[in-house]
């Protein structure tokens, strides 16, 4: 299934994930991403994955914080 997505449970006890969206003219999260990177708040990133629409998922070791949905 080459078009299948992988689901990963996040929050306690799994990893924490920052989702940087890319919505073209409607806006994106890359301005905030650059600001976080400049202040070194992304130093704990363990993995960065490009998303199909041009965004990113940044994975961090879990903090034990439950999902805040």
- Estimate percent helicity: 10-25%
Task: Give the spatial strand order of the biggest sheet.
Answer: 1-3-2
Q: Can you tell me the residue ranges where pLDDT is under 50 for at least 5 consecutive residues?
A: none
Structural class: alpha+beta
| Mean model confidence by pLDDT | 85
Distance between the termini: 29 Å
Oligomer: single chain
What does this structure look like?
- The protein has 69 residues and is of the alpha+beta class.
- It has a domain at 16-60.
- Helix content is 13%, strand content 23%.
- The protein has a three-stranded antiparallel β-sheet with strand order 1-3-2, with no helix packed on it.
- A hairpin with a 5-residue loop joins strand 2 and strand 3 (56-60).
- The chain is globular.
- The mean pLDDT is 85.
